[in-house]
Amino acid sequence: MAQNQAALRPDSLVLYKVRPARVLALGEKIDIELEGGQIKRVRPKDIRLLHPGPLRSLADLGPREGELAAAWELLEGSETTLDELAELMFDEHSPATTWAAWQLVAEGLYFEGTPGAIRARTRQEVEHDQAEQAAKAAAARDWSEFLERLQQARPAPEDAERLQEVVRLALGTTTNSRILQALGHRETAENAHRALIQVGYWPPDYNPHPERNRLPAADPDLPVPEVPQEERLDLTHLPAYAIDNEGNQDPDDALSLDGDRLWVHVADVAALVAPDSAMEREARARGANQYLPERTVNMLPRAVTERLGLGLQPISPALSFGFRCGAAGEPTEIDIRPTWVRVERLTYEAVEQRLVEPPFAQLSALTERFRAHRTANNATTIDLPEVEVRVRDGQVIVQPLPKLQSRLLVTDAMLMAGTAAAEFCREREIPIPFATQPAPDKLEQPTDLAAMYAYRRQFKPTRLTSEPGLHFGLGLTCYARATSPLRRYPDLLVHQQIRAWLAGSERLDKQRITARTAEAETAAAAARRAERLSNQHWKLVYLRADPHWRGEGVLVDKGEHKSVVLIPELALEARVRLRGDPALNSRVRLTPREIDLPELTCHFQVRE
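Now predict its structure.
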């Protein structure tokens, strides 16, 4: 059906874009009326004639029932015109039947083409498109039902795979989620976390931070060899004590006193974990153990701890650091040996009751001299509150760590061993990762909580370098971390280098030490970040579980709008609005008002 100007007249039915229109007036341009009464002036080429009319009103173009199936079966695979199709389907050629026929053509299922050349599609084409349409309709229904289940917080088992899209966003592995958009949330990891809780897929206390930081969820599954047969110094005649928190699962250091010589025994991990072995590469990739409130994930197979943890077997192999305390309090006459030791495990609390007894009184005297040596070198005590957070059988336990002399004793003994290891390696030019820390811009000796909080913020981070140097915070001129090889990769690296020197075998050079340390520290930083965020998470779970919690904080920093209050019993920082101008170190009574786990925030209300 060819369109021409002669057939076009007022009240004709024309096609404007995809809409029906009625011709009102002809001229150089044509006036047309659209549905809704809109009047437009268009060029002749902008419209297609469908029916010459007369069409008195576009409202006459209502739905029409016709013989669609019969017309299509009759014309299948052939061509026709819009006029003929309207006549065949409706037994009438009018503006209304012509428009109804054109809508079916435009739909594209049974017919396709232009008003002047319409093709009836083949049965194969129609059935193919019908199947596609049915599949799309089913998918749309499925999607709608899925969203309805989510809005009702009743996801079905089959929804788990689809929800992985939101899980990936919550864990930071993607930045987009169609589901989150449909639920009306902005596409952020925190909102994805919140949505997964709201729909009931994650429990309300789910901790995403280890996965978000790409941490492994289980210990390495690697074979562990037997402890090799080698010559060791027998120190089993000396009482040795592994002193740690109650419930500690990886005892890797112990103390002995041999006259005026202090021995710090350390689990001999390097005896089992050789450089470039599968276990060493795995430990390097992990960097450190993960100490999460809900679980511990080791950097080495659990069997390593079971065989080498001090006191877990009747007799344990160790790498022992022996030294005396010099006149100035520094370690002297350093001797490092592979040994056999017999270790008794004790808690800090038990040792605290025995500090006046031998050998703990003598151990205290030695470590206090070393502490005085560090203090003379500007070592700083930042005594901020500490707590231990544990999740047991679904219950969160927050336990403040008491300030015990026994903890100071062990801390200083370990620092002495680290100093001894660093001096031993420095003198013999054994490449190891030395721990260094530059001094802050301004030196202080803070005495109250607010001053300690402020001073800590001035500290620069500890760095592991191939050259020895000052560790300001510890007050040491040469130091290496060497007493936790079960827990930290750099300590294991120090042990491997010392053992290689003792055996007269090849050692790693500085370049390889630096590269391995950097790899491990990157991984360890992720573990420390996950630990910090996980502790914050479970502290907020703890607060949320106790709607009647009331506590007290100490004002440690003033801000223009909000101030920082430190809650000692939780070791938790809170930002609160305070009235007036209270002095630093003032006590503030607090109660939780709003807790947002995905955002890791708790808004506290100040109680007068």
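The mean pLDDT is 94.
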